[in-house]
Specification:
DNA-binding (chains A, B), DNA-binding, homodimer, mainly alpha, Arc Repressor Mutant, subunit A, 11 helices, TetR (chains A, B), 72% helix, elongated, TetR/AcrR family transcriptional regulator (chains A, B), Tetracycline Repressor, domain 2
Chain lengths: 218, 218
DNA sequence: TTAATTTTAGAACAAATGTACTATATTTGA
DNA sequence: TCAAATATAGTACATTTGTTCTAAAATTAA
């Protein structure tokens, strides 16, 4: 593997373990097994590493984000897309945990993210419409209600990892399953009987996303 | 005002403005108009300042937390308690924004917070039962569903400020109203017709928590 | 009043860190 | 093959920061 990749890998491990504020060019270079002079030759400073990893993650999430709310999406599709995305986000969890601090310095990342959230909002709205047409989701109970629901979905989607870090520490897959299950539950009261049957099948003990989520985490 | 209080005030302002990672004993002392030697005489380091402010916040939130889910609570009571708490959290927003980084160093705070979340969870469950008895809330649609809902409520309650910081920056009251409105909407699909009427009265343009939330924030 | 205590400012120092620079070593391409 | 380029290790330096120490100033209490 080439040096740039080894650096990124070491940076990712260390950012996740101790946060972007504690990791330095020297500590990351040590983890990668190279000199810090060499690291700075490839990446001027830690901010460049953060940005590179952000772009890496964005590139890996994009396919799922596209797929998620394409035409004819079903509740099962939403589950699957969220599951894949949750897994990826967890691999790059330092980005979500340190996001505010990072975007205070990297204005470009902040604006990129704001645009991304606007797109997500549209995708959610469109996805809801699709699910309604599939007969899995009901129309919104009050005017403008789905806008508010989406606000909550975005908060949960962006911050479950911070919550997990404080509540459970570094428990890997079990944590991902736990919060995926929780977020998906936000759909329940808006589902039609048909949608609810799909939900119950997916979350059943022998379903694709059931059972394993409920082991005690602490 | 005595020196200790002036220090805490300066620290709070600076933590909120630039984060706990950027503020130093020297910068805070400068903001308070004293020497850093003097600051260290009162508080050994920034961690002691963080802990002092955390305790200050905990003391100010406690009354609302108690009141929130006492016997015979109504939806209106829930709205009011959340409103008060949201306002207080916003004043100490650095704590929520930097919480993961902080608790990595201050194990005691982390454990205190974990216990607090356990209590909150019980309070929510009890509160739901109260609202059901008042005839404002329906029983859970699926077994264990309210546990999952509470997980989401806690994530939103603890992280709306981080989301606000990235999305809107420092917009004060308007931001608080915006996210309060969003979080309260999570109750909607579980409300009885009676509960829904209460909700609509509270969020009406001329209601206690209506209107003002919907000015554009960006 | 005056001695003890508390508070304050500032200096001093070591450790850490970002940044730049230098000198080899390695790889590439003609 | 061999010159040009790229990559690497290590050094050097200025800054920042936490921490400790000293001495002066202010306050307190007898």
């Amino acid at each position: 593997m080439n040096t740039k990749d080894r650096i990124l890998q070491a940076a990712l491990r260390q950012f996740n373990a101790i946060g972007t504020g504690q990791a330095t060019v020297r500590s990351i270079a040590a983890e990668a097994g190279i000199s810090h002079g060499n690291l700075c030759y490839h990446y001027k400073n830690t901010d460049e590493l953060i940005e590179a990893l952000y772009l890496q993650l964005a590139g890996r999430v994009a396919p799922y984000a596209q797929m998620a709310f394409s035409e004819g999406i079903s509740l099962e599709g939403v589950f699957g897309q969220a599951w894949q995305t949750f897994g990826l986000l967890y691999q790059y969890r330092f980005l979500l945990i340190d996001f505010v601090q990072i975007t205070r310095r990297l204005e470009r990342m902040k604006q990129n993210f704001q645009q991304l959230m606007d797109v997500r909002r549209q995708q959610f709205l469109y996805g809801f419409k699709q699910l309604e047409e599939q007969g899995e989701m009901k129309p919104e109970p009050l005017p403008g209600h789905y806008e508010l629901l989406i606000t909550n979905l975005l908060i949960v989607g962006n911050n479950w990892i911070s919550e997990a870090e404080v509540q459970f520490g570094d428990k890997g897959d079990a944590v991902v399953a736990h919060y995926h299950r929780a977020m998906m539950a936000l759909f329940v009261p808006y589902l039609t009987p048909k949608g609810l049957r799909a939900y119950q099948a997916l979350t059943a003990d022998d379903g694709a996303y059931g059972g394993k989520a409920d082991k005690p985490l602490r």
